[in-house]
Amino acid sequence: MKIEKALIVDDPWITKIMNGTKIWEMRSTSAKQRGWIGLIKKGSGHVVGVARMIGADGPLSDQGMIDNADKHHIPPDIFLTGKFSKHRYAWIMSSAVRLHRPVHYVHKSGAVIWVALDKCVSDALANDEAMKALG
Question: SUPFAM superfamilies attached here (predicted)?
Answer without folding.
Answer: PUA domain-like
